Amino acid sequence: MAFREMDPKQLTGNPFERIGDQWMLVTAGNRDHYNTMTASWGGLGVMWGKNVAYTVIRPQRYTYEFMEANDTYTLSFYGKEYKPALSLCGSKSGRDVDKAKETGLIPVFDEAAPYFEQAEVVLVCRKLYAQAIDPACFVDTSCDSKWYAARDYHKQYISEIVKVLVRE
């Protein structure tokens, strides 16, 4: 499959649907060693004069190690037929299984971070800012009690979207 680069401002699709309902894969690493995980939290916007993605990952996730070790990562979006593959990528750890082999997703290594041939849209992201979510900063404390009963706070990454790729 071939991908073409697209101006980020030409990106179509509802981000709430893409991220929250269709899910996405967060992939970090390199040709020799990478991991991917499914995410249904995050966002897209503008910060510091740049098109950015907001990505959150809990430290116990295997992908976290790759996010910390690399300056770039990808967010990739798929058609509905890939929901079972994304489900597996969100429920199994890359420490225990080869997610590409288990799902049939084909990794591509022609960018600063890996992504998969079956993606419809790929955002290549470069980290700008990272910080652990601080429970003291919750204005609505119900978010803390509902989502962090185990006190396992996500780390938030604000990243510049340096390239948008769409499958042709």
Structure characterization notes:
The chain is α+β, with helices and mostly antiparallel strands and 168 residues long. Helix content is 21%, strand content 38%. The protein has helices at 15-21, 62-69, 83-91, 99-103, 141-147, and strands spanning 3-6, 24-29, 34-39, 43-47, 50-57, 72-77, 107-108, 115-116, 121-132, 155-167. Strands 1, 2, 3, 4, 5, 6, 9 and 10 form an eight-stranded antiparallel beta sheet that branches. Strands 7-8 form a two-stranded antiparallel ribbon. The longest helix is centred in the middle third of the chain and has 9 residues, at 83-91.
Shape field = globular
Would you tell me the structural class of the helices and strands? alpha+beta
Quote the distance from N terminus to C terminus.
7 Å
- Taking all Cα atoms into account, the compactness measure Rg is 15 Å
Q: Profile the largest sheet.
A: 8 strands, antiparallel
Could you give the count of β-strands?
Answer: 10
The count of helical stretches stands at 5
Order of helices and strands, N to C?
EHEEEEHEHHEEEHE
Q: What is the strand content?
A: 35-45%
The level of helicity is 10-25%
Give average pLDDT, whole number. Answer: 96
- Identify low-pLDDT runs: none
